[in-house]
User: Fold Sugar phosphate transporter domain-containing protein from Manduca sexta.
Amino acid sequence: MCEVKEELKMKEHRPDLCSRYIKIFIVVSCYWIVSIATVFVNKTLLSSQSVALEAPLFITWFQCVVSFTICYSLSKSGGIPKVFTFPSGTPWNIEVVRKVVPLSVMFTLMIATNNLCLKYVGVPFYYVGRSLTTVFNVVFSYILLGQTTSYRCILCCGFIIFGFYLGVDQESLLGSFSLIGTIYGVIGSLMLSLYSIFTKKVLPSVNQEVWLLSYYNNAYSIFLFPPLIMLNGELSALRNYNNFDSTYFWFQMVIGGICGFAIGYFTSLQIKVTSPLTHNISGTAKACTQTVIATQWYNESKNTLWWTSNVIVLASSALYARFKQVEMEENSRKPIPEEKQSLV
Assistant:
């Protein structure tokens, strides 16, 4: 009798497990598709002759406008029924502005330098060009938070730096190296690291709601970008541009903005249905696939050492994520000393 009950339970459990795996597969696939598509769409907007607009920060600003419009609409409607609920909140509250704007400055500089990097470097090199985020995370976590890092994680950072150097060296030998693009990539990595660290401090101000923070960041970036656009000398390019009346141009711009919003949604969704570690591994594998696709798409031939640099960076980043996950699990199992326990 007990065996029959166990068999029935197993049969009931299998469809649930199967549906869960199908859901994870769909979410991860959507993340890969949207993430890779976003990089290629942005590269087209920033560098292709079909757009031919030398105003990368204006393009980035417009994407923030599209993301803000979507977030504003979802905030008013409460989200998408049976898909997800969008938290209520307004970015125009003085207290919220005071607490979130410093982070929004980092957010603005981060996406600006990322797109400037993508404008000047090829898509195959884009991941390596922005690969120092992990290294900056370790440095700033120690300087700003006083958090130490294990020797094996530091060793992974050493390999990432070596892979980055090797990639730069091989790009130079192949004649496709862009110094300004690589500098923007390093600055983008630095800003992403700072943004990640300070996000933890700002999230309590928005009730731990990642969507609200994204909504507010895009709202404030709309006002933070115009001075950067002027400093980058893009006003003359905008005045002399002849395709503002082109439906195809605005279609590309809107698609770029939707992709920017979608990647944030699928990133959060992937973390939700899997785990932060799985997300990191998925992102690493996606970067590898993106590099292979890009070399085929743009008909670029790379030598063995160039591919070796990519493998070193990808493997070191994945190992770092795994080591940090193991350390977090070990720390969570350690008993808290009685004198440090909360009275609650």
In short: The chain is about 80% helix and 0% strand. The longest strand covers residues 79-80. The CA atoms of residues 76 and 88 lie 8 Å apart.
